[in-house]
Amino acid sequence: MRILLVEDDAMLGDALAKTLIQHAHAVDWVRDGRAASEHWDCTDYDMVLLDLGLPGRDGLRVLADARAAGRDTPVVIVTARDSLPDRVAGLDAGADDYLLKPFAVDELLARIRAIARRRSGRAKPVIEHLGLVLDLSERNGCFEGTQLTFTRREFALLTALLEQPGRVWTREQLVERLYGWNDGIASNALEVQIHALRRKLGADYIGTARGIGYFIPKTAPA
User: Fold this and answer.
1) 146 φ, ψ to 5°?
2) pTM for the predicted model, two decimal places
3) β-strand partners of 48
4) At which residues is 4-aspartylphosphate found (predicted)?
5) Tell me: the pLDDT tens digits for 18-43?
């Protein structure tokens, strides 16, 4: 997933960004409310992790403005504001979840996965399609009885393509999904990942829409 991390504490923000990247997410980390609004305005994020006590603009204002503008990106508020009125205000402003600091990173990751499952209509952290069983919590898979491991980029790419089998993703959409603003991207980086996945899953598992992008078929090719 492409995640906007909004956290003004340098140590916590750096640790969270590194952890999220290790778990196959692309991360844009900003440290004030105005930057959060600017990034959110121009990027189609899959999730926002939002602190409330921010310089420049309060996180609750950032959230309220985004919802008023029609942005339905899932939001997890991550804050030290622990009073009942604060929690109610955050959820009523449009947050999907509210996590109090300090917290265990594993719990945050589990909440991210839970929200992603609800958005996709899945009850379990597993995707099954055309002989592939992909475990979203363990970040590995089994294809036609063979256990597979994936790099974090391969896993992120495969997860994106499997969200909607049959949907053609443009190259630009996939690059935006896989890479943060500060990531260095080689010109053929996406093609390298596609090639690696085809070696593991077979040449026909990922299709090419010539001149457009890539897709995973809804049904097995004839």
Assistant:
1) -105, 125
2) 0.81
3) 4, 75
4) 51
5) 999 999 899 999 999 999 999 999 99
